[in-house]
Amino acid sequence: MFNLYIKTHNELKNQVTKNYRCSEHELVNKLLDSLSISDADTKKAADLAYGLISKVRNNRIKGHGVDALMQEFKLSTNEGIALMCLAESLLRIPDKITQDKLIKDKISSGNWDNHTNTESIFVNATSWGLLITGKLIKSLSSSRLSSVLLKVVAKGGEPLIRKAMSAAVRFMGKQFVMGESIQSALQAAVNKEKKGYKFSYDMLGEAAMNDEDASRYMQSYIDAIHAVGKVNKGLDVHSGPGISVKLSAIHPRYSRAQYHRVISELYPKLKQLCLLAKEYNIGLFIDAEETERLEISLDLLEMLLNDKDLQGFDGIGFVIQAYQKRAIYVIDYVNFLASSANMKLMVRLVKGAYWDSEIKKCQVEGQTDYPVFTRKFYTDLSYLACAQKLFDYQNNIYPLFATHNAHSLAMIYFMGEGKKYEFQCLYGMGETLYDNVVGQNNLNISCRVYAPVGTYDTLLAYLVRRLLENGANSSFVHQIVDKEYPIEDLVKSPIELSKKAQGKSNPYFTKPAYIYPNNRLNSKGLDLTDEIQLNKLQLVLNKYSEKEFNAYPLIYDMEIPKEREKNIVFSPGNLLDKVGYVIKGTDDDINFAVKQAQDGFKIWSQTKPSERARILLNMADLMEENYYELLNLLVREAGKTLNNAIAEVREAVDFCRYYGAQVEREFDNETHKARGVLVCISPWNFPLAIFMGEISSCLAAGNAVIAKPSYQTSLVAFYAVELFYKAGMPRNVLQFIPGSGSVIGNKLTEHHDIKGVIFTGSTEVAQTINKNLSVKNFDSVLIAETGGQNAMIVDSSALPEQVVTDVLTSGFDIAGQRCSALRVLYLQADIADKVLNMLKGAMNDLRVGNSQNLATDVGPVI
User: Fold this and answer.
1) CA-CA distance, 566 to 551, in Å (whole number)?
2) What is the pLDDT of residues 386-430, one digit of tens each?
3) Where in the sequence numbering do the catalytic residues fall?
């Protein structure tokens, strides 16, 4: 039986799930109807925002320099990209040789001369990385500096240049990271606290790859809470400093698939941190991460609020991302949780930091729609609607508004008149704006700075993410300091912009199904983090879980004798699960099938390409209509995990649509001559995808096909051929003969009327097929994809976490049974120990077992 950990929810939680990928048009109109902001306040907000932006631009030179950096090094330029690459990896590289090569590679691609005479000393220093040393910049004029620098680097990586560039990157990093330790960060905060700022400290760390990483990050949070608590000086959770926690940093498997592990292993850690924060009376926020992790974080929040040991603690904080379509429903739900538990909850409202990856992920996975808004001003509209709701729920919620957008800030200022709240900004990015907000001489609203803390080797990934978010030309952080960008455009109300757009989605982001040109549909995916889809999936899969399938030769105008032996098929993941039976083909079957295929070929090769394409498109649609039964077969017969099975169905669908579209658009029977009768021999590791890829390409081009699947996965192949018949494929054009490769495969490839073979499998078998074809069929063709010793070569510039992720995926996904699976890993000696230690820990966290369990990472090997 399939076990996907189905959970039941109340109606408010169901609303969160239902609106995961809701209609953008309907939601925008609902948000517009929900807002009750007067025209007078809208006008006052625009005027206030205009004034704030003007002050920022006038005081730009006096600022911290990061906004100037963003303006100078746009990510649409070579210099901006080079700077990002240097920031991401230079300080991580332990050896001088690789450092020198990286510096040479990146600075040679930029026109750095143009960036050495700006108004900002910070920009100049970052451009060259040389002003810090103080000498080279004085001895050379700006016009000569670029050429001389390149000559020095070309001579083998001059240590001076290396040190200067490293210093420049560190200097830039200091603008984004509060301190390398919590003690240094607390010390750096003193002067800003006098101005009216407050702080929430985040101990920098990317997602833990193994238990060792998680333990180290956990200890850093514990140490930080002790340090922050000791300087709290009796302040409460709202007026004193706090801590932000990234849950993926304290558990290596923080995902929906590992739900039971998260609840049993991660929750005790989170509770421990909250109890410690309660002891010191400081706030502790659960940071928001990718959309797919939202609901599991809500389950953890519910457990915290209902934990008797945490009763009376008002310092539990939760982050909500306004760019998620369901943000407004999440606020309803967390308010319900707080009210039901008689707890006061802090909620930080942010715009959201993963927008580009959320969009791309949905396109890659073929989801029905995006979980985030496709227009920036829709997110701004959502932000205002969420802010209004947070103010409505002040009995249970203390709101914190994190934004760098002057107009959003101004709107909230007037919406929140007479109410308790605070603003938030990112360290190193928002202070130029909020210097005009905090303090009695300004708006006198407090601002809490989200302050990253950590060593520079942990800072890198965070730093690049911030550069990407805020260095984009469309970013408000970028536009607010761009004097060429009209202030009038920056203070336009998202309400008016949304009304003008009438709720229509961004025309540059069609739904994931329509991302391909020439009207070719993207294959449909399933989201295994969506509770509604999981409920339906488990119900339907278990309906088929005891069904027995069968496979036997499918040969036109021939009945298979009933007395033939039936070979029972058991699931490789559960040897008690009888999946069905297979009847093998014989020599007589082969001869008869070839003759029938020759007759079918005569008509099929002259069939219009458009008609052949139509049948392929029908087949693609039929596979999606029978999605769940195909998944059931793939999991039970082939041992596929659900993720792998979904990917396999999608690839098979994409093959049919791709070849169908190509043939209809480009082929002509007079210029694109079909070859004749072809044999397709497919492997067991991709029993549907490769099987369909081979036969659909041959059929699309006008050939007749005899399909010989891997004997281990004949049931899946048989099911696919039957679907092809339903799609309209003539039975004498596509025929099916199961059996062993040594018998059926050999006989087919030796047959003198076979005009070609498409084969995926071992090199040894491919050589045998090639020999068989060459003996009798001099005009036959062999198309073979075989295995090999695939290697990965990693130097010290690579991010270890990314290396480990890719090694796990390539080496162990599909139980390591890909033709292209990673077999050999070469590591530069300088980083080998660190990467291997991380890799071994991550491998230990993989779950091996029956693929019918959602938590299984590695299913059975066939």
Assistant:
1) 9
2) 999 999 999 999 999 999 999 999 999 999 999 999 999 988 877
3) 785, 819
